[in-house]
Amino acid sequence: MNLEHPLLILRDKISNLDRKLLMLLAKRRSLVIQLAKEKLFRHHPIRDIEREHTLFENLSILAKKYQLDIHHITRLFQLVIEDSILTQQVILQKNINHLHTHEPRIAFLGPKGSYSHLAARKYASYHFDLIVENNFLKFDDIIQAVESGQADYAIMPIENTTSGSINDVYDLLQKTTLSIIGEVIIPIEHCILVNNTDSTLQTIEIVYSHPQPFQQCSLFVNRFPQWKNQYTESTAAAMEKVAHMNSPKVAALGSEAGGKIYGLEVLARNVANQYQNYTRFIVLARQPIEVSIQVPAKITLIIATGQQAGALVEVLLVLRKYDFIITKLENRPISGNPWQEIFYIDIQAHLQLDTMQTALQELNKLTHSLKILGCYPCEKTVPIE
């Protein structure tokens, strides 16, 4: 008891400090909200890159002074600043758009606990007080639910930093009438999850997961040739299955947060091929939105060019002429037209800019077809190192 007593005192002190940190973060966010309203009134942009650079330089000095790890402090404040920028963006966007405010229905892939579910909750945390969660087993069903009015928003993965583009989603974007109104980027921290205390990496015989995590964790998984990979429709479905089986011979590959929903324990963390593993999700709705000129924006286009030499180059030269930054260029076969391709282009720009409207007019003359999938706020807000 004498040994335990000092531990309890120290833990209580740490818990009190944690509560004070949360209170300070809450006060900081209230100031951020006031700041956003001032920027709205004065027509100032959301981001101030020069100030962010100065902030991180000062934090590095203070971290060194207090003997704290600079890398850890930088990561911590990157998250704080990201929350600040996203909070401000939402306030400015609500000023010009009238989105659902009362329990909108959000459609996503897989049961609760899937990465799509986590992305849906992250998006909702900034935009809505309450939501109705609608989970589906196929991407097609998600699109149809929103197109038919069964749901208001769709959250769908579009690309991952390790395994690349989600082709099934790109192909659906060719045909849908929905518009992209936002994006969500979440870290993917894959874990080996089990439901039996006797499980070890050596006793496991079958691992369940969606095909994407297996691609993203191939180096780790291949270290255990005795494992048999079994595909499921989502990571959450894999976790649910492992929870029901309760066997030391089975495991799921998924998120720790999702595993907690199903009562699973982490056997191994951070098993992805890349240390920094992120998935970008797009948010789709029946109507496009207007993006405040004060908010960093992105436009996604679908274009079909002719098969003559240099057709795509001519398109890219138009965008370069107006100094637009291309963040993504993806090609996919045209559905129903063998050997013909279309191109998806993500551009950092606002649709209402005169230069963008001029560029679109020129692109229309160079392409067989051009479709604007959406103009929406960027979420990738913290490039400061």
Protein described:
One of its GO terms (cellular component) is cytoplasm. The protein has 385 residues and is of the alpha/beta class. The chain has four domains: 16-96, Up-down Bundle (Chorismate Mutase Domain, subunit A); 105-188 and 278-285, Periplasmic binding protein-like II (D-Maltodextrin-Binding Protein, domain 2, 3-Layer(aba) Sandwich); 190-268, 3-Layer(aba) Sandwich (D-Maltodextrin-Binding Protein, domain 2); 297-377, Alpha-Beta Plaits. It is 43% helix and 26% strand. The protein is built from twelve helices and 15 strands. The strands form three sheets. Strands 1, 2, 3, 4, 5 and 11 form a six-stranded mixed β-sheet that branches. Strands 8-7-9-6-10 form a five-stranded mixed β-sheet. Strands 13-14-12-15 form a four-stranded antiparallel β-sheet, with helices on one face. Strand 1, helix 4 and strand 2 (132-136) form a beta-alpha-beta unit. Helix 11 (311-321) runs antiparallel to helix 12. The protein is globular, with a radius of gyration of 23 Å. 32% of the residues are buried. The model has no long low-confidence stretch (mean pLDDT 89).
